């Protein structure tokens, strides 16, 4: 029996927590050194392995009811906030889409702010956001939406170097947090919906010198080039918009690649490497070590960019260095990260209609008949999961203490109708039409998943999918935020809700935790936006206002906000729908020929801000269903010349197309 008080006095709080963790951790083959290296609040995802697990346990399931806000920092910004706060030397470093901040981690006092201006014509598919920075020595390194990698002095926020990485006029943008691996800064790009050719870049961190580029869409004379017919590779997609992970022992970076372009696969028959794949690269050179493709010839925007989580698992009596991914296609993958061999692939969501399973021998999906008919005959089909995926971008957490992956999942489908794609700069290059399908039950679940089976030990349903990332801790807690604004603490073993706090806006960012002066803090960004709120038309978000801020919590000795009595998640998370006025459906008049064309054009140009088929949550953007029919000149002027944060479409849309848009917008 250890006398923990003696260790605490001699070695400090963190050592005690690590020892406690090591003694209790008997399920999974991670060493104490591994855990220490990968519970670092100065790194995105709390470490290179992206486990999003913290060894801190001062805040635990017995006292989390005493957690209260200690300060709040306003960003003065109404865009979505998805950044992972980083803490080093008593400072928190956070980013928004157009600014970088250094904040006193104890008090919330702003130390410096650096603004980042970009042209409003910058093209972004799925939310004007930034997901965070990387810290390297005395530098804060981030990307900007108009395609720059920028290094700032951590002491004063002054620019040290700036390098051009992408051209927004070609459809590229950048929103991810950079990765530092073996003294190389690694970045990726967005733009898969605009017909770009994706890539990953390596940069020298002190100077910004460009070291290498790996194109995710090979040219005809490169390996994999034969998986693209004709010149389709030139606009093949393959964006790389989420941060990868790094194994320093193997010196390998793992990075996911997104969807092919266009979504309609009829014009690009073949596997379309390296879209929807996991890449293993050498950080110094960008050399490909191995690849694994999750969804060959993807038709459904399933991407492959979701975070590659690294750990060690015992499988059939043998310890494997593994990479885990909860893929948007609905399957939970376990790969051998040394060689890319598929070890396990199981469903982690309840409804999958695009495939009947994954063949473990070939590693390929077993396509359903409806998917075959859609691809071969152009049939419409109801497909589950939808483009939101069985899981979206929000990072899962893996706890080596429980052996479970904690994952925010989606329960939504779509009706998919392919048609001939036409490339037009600045307009979605997808070649299909779709409508969302809704379930009568919950639209999302937080699940505690066994990585080897995909089955849930517990799950918490919600009326709005949680989409901001998950944090698990040695205090037997799981933290995650809701798009309706609550930050929750769940019991990691049972899923019971132990505590929650209502922030001022929706949470679409990952929580993190750090310790200063012996006090453990929980931090999370709040600010509704991103892709789900405008795209989904979810009426449960109608009353949730935008507005970015950073919330920081710590324990108090009082019981003022104590909700530590276990409350089943269903009674809280599903109750959100009761506060929303449900709009009754009305019978609409048939669309004119012009309005029919306008509807498809609207979904390809306007839906990422104003919702599919004009159905918006009403929380973050103007509801065009209320636009006055008599104000045609105002509409045309706003579309062609831009208004406020809306970009100008002059040069991208001709007069006839603007007329078609107006016909649709004013239709009943």
CATH superfamily of the largest domain: Quinoprotein alcohol dehydrogenase-like superfamily
How much of the sequence lies in strands comes to 25-35%
Q: Low-confidence parts lasting 5 or more residues at pLDDT below 50?
A: 1-33, 558-571, 577-586
CATH T-level topology of the largest domain: Methanol Dehydrogenase, Chain A
Distance between the termini: 73 Å
Largest sheet: 5 strands, mixed
Structural class: alpha+beta
Strand order of the largest sheet: 1-32-33-34-35
Total separate domains: 3
- The overall strand count is 38
Radius of gyration: 24 Å
Q: What CATH architecture of the largest domain would you give?
A: 8 Propeller
Mean pLDDT: 87
Quick structural gist:
By secondary structure, the chain is of the alpha+beta class. Helices cover 12% and strands 30% of the residues. The protein has 10 helices and 38 strands.
């Amino acid at each position: 029996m250890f006398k923990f008080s003696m260790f605490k006095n001699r070695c400090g709080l963190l050592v005690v927590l690590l020892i406690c963790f090591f003694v209790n951790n008997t399920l999974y083959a991670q060493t104490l050194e591994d855990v220490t290296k990968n519970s670092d609040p100065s790194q995105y995802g709390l470490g290179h392995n992206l486990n999003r697990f913290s060894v801190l346990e001062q805040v635990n399931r017995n006292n989390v009811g005493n957690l209260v806000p200690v300060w709040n920092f306003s960003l003065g910004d109404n865009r979505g906030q998805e950044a992972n706060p980083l803490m080093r030397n008593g400072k928190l470093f956070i980013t928004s889409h157009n600014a970088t901040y250094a904040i006193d981690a104890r008090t919330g006092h702003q130390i410096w702010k650096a603004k980042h201006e970009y042209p409003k014509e910058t093209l972004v598919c799925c939310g004007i956001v930034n997901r965070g920075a990387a810290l390297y020595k005395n530098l804060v390194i981030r990307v900007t939406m108009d395609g720059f990698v920028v290094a700032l002095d951590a002491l004063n926020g002054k620019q040290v170097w700036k390098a051009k990485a992408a051209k927004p006029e070609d459809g590229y943008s950048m929103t991810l947090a950079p990765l530092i691996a073996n003294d190389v800064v690694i970045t990726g790009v967005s733009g898969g919906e605009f017909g770009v050719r994706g890539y990953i870049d390596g940069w020298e961190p002190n100077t910004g010198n460009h070291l290498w580029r790996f194109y995710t869409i090979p040219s005809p004379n490169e390996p994999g080039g034969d998986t693209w017919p004709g010149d389709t590779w030139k606009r093949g997609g393959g964006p790389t918009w989420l941060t990868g992970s790094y194994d320093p022992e193997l010196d390998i970076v793992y990075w996911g690649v997104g969807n092919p372009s266009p979504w309609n696969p009829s014009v690009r028959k073949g596997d379309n490497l390296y879209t929807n794949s996991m890449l293993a690269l050498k950080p110094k050179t960008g050399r490909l070590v191995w690849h694994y493709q999750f969804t060959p010839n993807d038709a459904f925007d399933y991407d492959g960019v979701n975070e590659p989580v690294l750990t060690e698992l015992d499988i059939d009596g043998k310890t494997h260095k593994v990479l885990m991914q909860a893929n948007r296609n609905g399957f939970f993958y376990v790969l051998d990260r040394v060689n890319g061999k598929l070890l396990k692939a199981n469903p982690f969501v309840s409804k999958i209609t695009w495939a009947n399973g994954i063949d473990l021998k070939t590693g390929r999906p077993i396509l359903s008949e409806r998917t075959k008919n859609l691809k071969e005959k152009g049939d419409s089909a109801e497909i589950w999961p939808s483009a939101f995926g069985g899981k979206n971008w929000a990072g899962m957490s893996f706890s080596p203490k429980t052996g479970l992956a904690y994952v925010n999942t989606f329960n939504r489908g779509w009706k998919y109708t392919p048609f001939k794609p036409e490339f037009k700069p600045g307009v979605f290059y997808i070649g299909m039409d779709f409508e969302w399908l809704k379930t009568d039950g919950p639209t999302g679940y937080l699940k505690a998943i066994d990585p080897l089976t995909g089955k849930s030990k517990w799950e918490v349903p919600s009326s709005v999918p949680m989409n901001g990332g998950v944090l698990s801790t040695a205090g037997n807690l799981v933290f995650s935020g809701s798009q309706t604004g609550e930050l929750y603490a769940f019991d990691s073993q049972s899923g019971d809700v132990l505590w929650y706090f209502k922030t001022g806006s929706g949470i679409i960012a990952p929580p993190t935790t750090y310790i200063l002066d012996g006090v453990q803090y929980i931090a999370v960004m709040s600010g509704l936006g991103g892709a789900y709120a405008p795209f989904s038309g979810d009426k449960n978000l109608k009353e949730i206002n935008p507005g970015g801020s950073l919330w920081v919590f710590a324990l108090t000795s009082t019981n003022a906000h104590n909700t530590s009595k276990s409350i089943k998640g269903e009674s809280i998370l599903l109750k959100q729908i009761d506060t929303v006025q449900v709009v009754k459906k009305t019978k609409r008049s048939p669309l004119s020929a012009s309005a029919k064309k306008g509807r498809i054009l609207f979904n390809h140009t306007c839906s990422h801000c104003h919702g599919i088929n004009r159905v918006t949550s009403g929380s973050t953007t103007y509801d065009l269903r209320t636009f006055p029919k008599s104000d045609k000149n105002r509409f045309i002027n706003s579309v062609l010349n831009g208004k406020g944060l809306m970009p100008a479409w002059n040069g991208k849309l001709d007069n006839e197309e603007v007329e078609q848009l107006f016909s649709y917008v004013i239709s009943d």
